[in-house]
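Structure ticket #2291
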Amino acid sequence: MSGGKVMCRVRLDRGGYVPGESICINAIIDNDSKCVIKKTRAVLTETIQYTAKNKVVFTETRELAAMEKAKIGANCAEQWKNELLYIPPIPPTNLRGCHLIQIQYDLYFIITPKGANKAVRLQLPIMMATYPIRNSDGTLKRRKGTYYPSTLPTTRPWLSTSEGKLK
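Resolution: structure written out below.
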């Protein structure tokens, strides 16, 4: 960014989650530049790598959830305080017993400046599990915005034809 610097600190409440929970995002963006920041955005992504004969044959990345905040003026600051990003029903990181499919989840915090400057992407890898964290007495740790879904998504549009049969 021309004419100064932009500093950003992003913190998540933890590094592992289960579907139905929400990621608690805290961030401080100090825009000590002459450039206006058009928006800040948090994006949860899933990257799946398919392997055959010890080679990655196909990689797909999709956006699972996102939230954003409006512009930050020159020489101003913005704060994300306990912003909750809901995790939809998804499979866990690295399917147990399956070495052909690798799944990785990341939370990207993206700062998009106004004008021709490129966006800055901060990558925070996170783990998806199947068993939620429990209190010492065995009860679930619950927080507002937490729902534990009973099913995982099963459809992949590129696997089905219009008749609903596999290609």
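Closing remark: The first strand starts at residue 5 and ends at 12.
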